DNA sequence: GGCACAAGCGGACGCGTTGTCCATTTATTC
DNA sequence: GAATAAATGGACAACGCGTCCGCTTGTGCC
């Protein structure tokens, strides 16, 4: 209980060489994820590319998924910020269906920009237990509740499912454009919230 | 071109011991998938449990996914038959929204009954390239087209996404009942086809 | 019934990935 | 610059994969 009040430096600050290596690792990993099938990147690959030993890598990250997640994190934070405090329709102020549609559109843009990282991050199929996923679910759930949709808890997971990276990647591979996907998701958002008409 | 007309026995019929082993393998695999995390079952496990060698296993199945798929196949065939030629609302005759809702309900029942197999079958995240998935997509696409939904190709994948085994398993783990999930999906089906009202 | 031959079998092998462990090196503090 | 703690990196054991090939067993024919 005391620790909470104690101070601002619970951990004694990162050592200079450690910080340098963290940067090297993230840098090398970003390159690897972008340059080949992100699901095939191994811990050894990253260690070699970063010029550090396996042990050093495992000290910080338990697996490749968590590295992709770390890289993804900053991009997701930007969107999360906009959802909480940005301008409508992404931020508060617009009707829930419109906000949901805007969220879909932003997520598709995010998938497009970082599909390699998202694929790498979901390699284990553990997306649903991620902190980020929890955020998205809470957001969608709140919008659904605001629109008086029944079973918002179930519906939130349902409406997030199409954003799974495999689904999106598969659609793109089959020739769909992000435009068409966005259009379909917008219609879904409006229909699900009863704003269809 | 001739082979098509040639005869009924392109392959010389399966040997007795081979058939016996196939049965042993499928039997043992079903037990394993049911009794532990299906994603953690290995080819070695199945070989040991079935009392056959690794080579024997690989002769027929390239990986655990295909074994789970083989087990799942007969269950899926039943539903596919009903969709094509069964009574409404599952079969032809009912309005598309109702048929989609009925399809959702049947799929949830199928997930409930064989969640272990479905999890085992999707272990690689290759669900979307499966023959079965192609069938579901074609079915949903046809219903959407019938309801004059725009972008039926995109929408079909979108509306199938919530049926991913991980999503369903995750919802059940979070305390949702199949009842509530069915109810939410029914509403989604009606909303997406414009039969909401 | 016995024989020849193809089909089927199974375990050993080589490979690549994982995660851990610890002797050594390096940064920080006084 | 000495003392201490943190960080490093590569060796190691365990594991799963997929293949290969000498041996066994079923099947069709005489």
From TrEMBL, chains A, B:
* Keyword Plastid attributed: no
Q: What is this protein called?
A: TetR/AcrR family transcriptional regulator
Which residues does UniProt assign to DNA binding? 42-61
Q: Where is the HTH tetR-type domain?
A: 19-79
Spans traversing the lipid bilayer: none
Parts forming coiled coils: none
Q: Which residues form the signal peptide?
A: none
| Keyword set, alphabetical order | DNA-binding
Q: InterPro entries annotated for this entry?
A: Homeodomain-like_sf, HTH-type_TetR-like_transc_reg, HTH_TetR
Asked if the record carries the keyword Mitochondrion, the reply is no
Region annotation (Disordered) ranges: 1-20
Q: Which PANTHER family match?
A: HTH-TYPE TRANSCRIPTIONAL REGULATOR RUTR, POSSIBLE TRANSCRIPTIONAL REGULATORY PROTEIN (PROBABLY TETR-FAMILY)
Cross-referenced SUPFAM superfamilies: Homeodomain-like (SSF46689)
Q: Which Pfam families match?
A: TetR_N (PF00440)
- Organism per entry: Actinomadura yumaensis
């Amino acid at each position: 209980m005391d620790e909470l009040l104690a101070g601002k430096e619970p951990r004694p600050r990162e050592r200079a060489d450690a910080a340098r290596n963290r940067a090297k690792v993230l840098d090398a990993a970003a390159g690897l994820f972008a340059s080949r099938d992100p699901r095939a990147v191994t811990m050894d690959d990253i260690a070699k590319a970063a010029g550090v030993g396996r042990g050093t890598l495992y000290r910080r990250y338990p697996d490749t998924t968590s590295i992709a997640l770390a890289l993804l994190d900053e991009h997701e934070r930007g969107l999360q910020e906009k959802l909480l405090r940005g301008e409508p329709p992404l931020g508060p102020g617009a009707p829930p269906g419109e906000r949901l549609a805007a969220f879909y559109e932003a997520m598709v843009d995010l998938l497009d920009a970082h599909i390699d990282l998202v694929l790498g991050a979901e390699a284990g199929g553990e997306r649903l237990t991620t902190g980020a996923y929890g955020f998205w679910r809470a957001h969608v759930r709140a919008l659904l509740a605001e629109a008086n949709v029944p079973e918002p808890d179930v519906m939130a997971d349902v409406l997030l499912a199409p954003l799974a990276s495999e689904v999106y990647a598969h659609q793109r591979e089959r020739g769909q454009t992000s435009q068409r996907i966005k259009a379909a998701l917008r219609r879904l958002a409006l229909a699900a919230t009863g704003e269809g008409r």
